[in-house]
Amino acid sequence: MAAPGGPTRLPETLYTYQTTTEVGILLSSVLFGIFIAQLYQYFTSSKSEPVQMKCFGAFNHDRALRLYVELISPEVVFIALIETTHTVSLWVYLVDMNHGSILQPGYLILDTFTIDLALLMSGIVGAVVQSFYAYRISRFSGSFWLGIPSWTGSVVRVGITVAGCVTALRGFSGRHTITDWITKFSWVLGGVLASSTVVDLVNTIILCIILSRHRNSGTRTSRVIDKLTVWAIETGMLTSILAVSHPILGRVELLPAFLHVYPNMFSLSLLLS
């Protein structure tokens, strides 16, 4: 028993949730810092030529490959704004969560507007990045139809994400916990993760097939294509593994460590590609 006036230990589940939330937000913030550094490098690395031409000079003779490695500034800036909103929302949520739990430990898992906003931004980041990869695939292949499956999946993902935020704000008569929401609307989380995984796999498979057709053994272009193929597989596998890790673990209190970092993987992959 705690001494009179001494601190009372939080229940194990709440303590674990608080810890994973803080770790998840910290890791997300570190990745956000890396993203901003990469963004700065992207816009300042060359004043005389586009970054993609500087980094992929081997593609100068291949118009299709040049179209693939294009990075369009408006999309990058949009992702940066969404990522900033996501990070700020997480920190506001963290401060509010810790302050509220001083007198009421259950406040740690209370569903609030800031965490709903952060999750909405998370869903938008992933969908936009995946849609942009689909756009690259359609430009690279010359076929508009190859991008449709991924665009459809991304639209579904955003729709489910918005539905999840609406249910969180309107689906209960009073204040509720995150556990209540997951129990009542488990299809939202499952739908977002499933659609994200499917789009990742579709993008990866189509891209690898297209790249293999442009490969010409013994050329510099082939070596770069090999690197792009490996990168596509690694990126698709990483985000897919993250997406299926939570359902496998099945513990709500571990959810923040996964969800808060997940969108950063997409935004970083956009710039590093």
UniProtKB/TrEMBL annotation:
Name the domain of life this protein comes from: Eukaryota
Its recorded name reads: DUF6534 domain-containing protein
Q: What parts of the sequence cross the membrane?
A: 23-43, 76-95, 115-135, 155-173, 185-212, 224-248
> What keywords were assigned to this record?
Membrane, Transmembrane, Transmembrane helix
The organism of origin for this protein: Exidia glandulosa HHB12029
Q: Where is the DUF6534 domain?
A: 196-272
